[in-house]
Amino acid sequence: MRAYDCIRKKRDGEELSDEEIRYMISSYVKGEMPDYQMSAFLMAIYFQGMTDREISVMTDLVAHSGETVDLSGIEGVKVDKHSTGGVGDKTTLIVAPIVAACGAKVAKMSGRGLGHTGGTIDKLESIPGFRTTLTREEFFDTVNRVGVSVIGQSGNLAPADKKMYALRDVTATVDSIPLIAASIMGKKLAAGNDSILLDVKTGSGAFMKTLEGSVQLARCMVAIGENAGKRTAALITNMDVPLGNYIGNALEVKEAVATLKDAGPEDLTEVCVELAGNMLYLADKGTLEECAEMAAGSLKDGSAFRCFLNMVEAQGGDISCILDTDKLPSAPLTYEVRAREEGYVAHMDTEACGIASMLLGAGRETKDSVLDYSAGIVLKKKPGDYVSKGDVLAVLHASREELFQAAEQKFLEAVRISAERPGKQPLLYARVRREGIEKF
Ligand code: URA
Questions:
Q1: What is the per-residue pLDDT across 223-264, written as a single tens digit (0 to 9) for each?
Q2: Ligand 1 centroid vs 180 CA: distance in angstroms?
Q3: Which residues, other chains included, contact 9 with Cβ-Cβ below 8 Å and sequence gap of 6+?
Q4: What distance in Å separates the CA atoms of residue 214 and residue 231, rounded to the nearest whole number?
Q5: Could you tell me if the CB of 206 is within 6 A of ligand 1?
Q6: Which atom number of ligand 1 is nearest to the Cα of residue 180?
Q7: What are phi and psi of 244, to 5 degrees?
Q8: To test the ligand 1 pocket, which listed residue (55, 81, 165) has its Cβ within 8 A of the most ligand atoms?
Q9: Ligand 1: residue whose CA is nearest its atom 7
């Protein structure tokens, strides 16, 4: 078999056999195929797509390219969650403790941020002392005792994805449905949970910018999960505006803690209750309505906050920073971005907001960039708000004065002000299950 023939076949829109896909992926992972051939192959997939069979073969190869996790040492139903990535998306910090407080187990492996999107592991590492690498025994023990543990993905979990994702990231082949589906579901299947809830983001801050694309991606991933014997569902949620008001690692922990104390912003609270309710439903804890009520109740009675506190303590984090979030890393410098004209905030290009936050030091431009945990943006206005000229739109946080100019420019480019009041956008668009789609 030759890589050249497989590339040509896909380029010409033909369907590849199981053996051809296996040959391409395994040669690349073993280091027997150069990056330029895999890049051409990925670009051919980007343009020609893949059939359901091809996607499921590729997913299985990704899942079995390294170690697979056996979670049977953890009692009870283990339920996983995955977000396709966004700006201000701190939902895992809130949803995982809610689910644990309501009686399901969350043994979660999360990723780091790249480009305009943030990552849960970076956010957790902004809590002084918090360890995101635990031994298998420590991980299992924390989940059994506390109900929840969130750690970084082990280096040998789905190494095929690691290698291909790095290449996709520099060859403009990230936003392809078959490639995203195989990447996410390959990792989820390797992580060994019983059920999976997918949070598929849609809008200007998401990889999938259109609702149709997001629904298609959700359907594809739900089918892969169900065919692998996992209860799987997806919620399509809005990422056309940053979620909550805080963007940046320690800033997002701060907002997550407020939300766990039932004092968070409405949009973030609503999305988290819905995600947690769906996870509890997948873990067989009741009807969807009962599960959403349970989730909301755990914010009100403080049980979700206690679970988070217990997890931070179990993983070595300084809980005094959670009891008083003013003790979290905080930037020495702030800068107010002011409106240049009056009118309604009509739109916020969310990817650009993420890039502005990255320019302040909160995100990674390349995988080796060093993060400033205290950096980021606090939004003071969101779409639908009216502003007068000179009103503060946002406060930028950074450690160096010279970072503000480029970040302010990027942020101002992201915000469109108009005389007309924009329509209210939904937070949740649809739920996708094996049985079909429910539009909200
Ligand atoms: N997140 C992933 O894990 N993989 C993708 O391909 C895109 C988003």
A1: 999 999 999 999 999 999 999 999 999 999 999 999 999 999
A2: 5
A3: 16, 20
A4: 20
A5: no
A6: 6
A7: 75, -165
A8: 165
A9: 180
